[in-house]
Amino acid sequence: MSKKITIAIDGNSGCGKSSTAKAVAAALGYTFMDTGAMYRAVTLYFLRNRIDINDLRDIQNALDKIQLRFAYNPQSSSSDIYLNEENVSEEIRKMNVANRVSMVSAISEVRRFLVARQQQMGKAKAIVAEGRDIGTVVFPDAELKVFMTAELAVRAQRRRQELQSRGEFVDTQDVMQNLRKRDAQDSGRKDSPLKKADDALTLDTTHLDFDAQVAQVLQWARAKIEEPLTE
Ligand code: DC
Fold it and tell me: Which residue ranges have their beta carbon within 6 Å of ligand 1?
């Protein structure tokens, strides 16, 4: 039987982490964990319930009421996220959530809450987890760590197309501004900033098409899976 590993994929917003991680997980028969979706779902809950993000008690009370789970959706061949048993997979992709999520994900209580949940979900390995702090904080012992990057203009164009395919028509300049702001917030926050783990492999997707980026990660993953077990 082949060894089961943990694959951590981190990087900036909009460089194709989610779709790459999803395809790699499918090819290996692994579970895909989109941690950004978890931060987005918490943000949606905070928005809907008008949680005051400057009030720690308000935040803690809200977190106590939040249940998150993923469930595979055979129709879309991807996993849906459920917030307190409501499928919020589409709702969390809207711009109102995108504009607030960096602020919510900078809150240490929120990070502690979600990291614990992510570590519990990843216990059995055979997982491809994607986010900003996977290789540095959530799974520092992951056998394979990939850090994905791409030029800002290319990322904005891709994100705009993704939103458009969901029926949301936005200006590329607005998307670019949102990505730039999130880059700065994600890399500049005190708690678990986005940064490349020392032992992560860099994958720049600016000039790579989707199939090529998936093939590269799969090649790295298979090399790790076939490596003999060490103590
Ligand atoms: O990958 P995404 O765009 O769906 O992520 C949404 C936001 O969540 C992003 O602005 C940063 C934050 N995030 C985080 O802080 N840590 C993670 N592990 C994943 C996402």
Answer: 13, 35-36, 39-40, 101-102, 105, 131-133, 182, 186
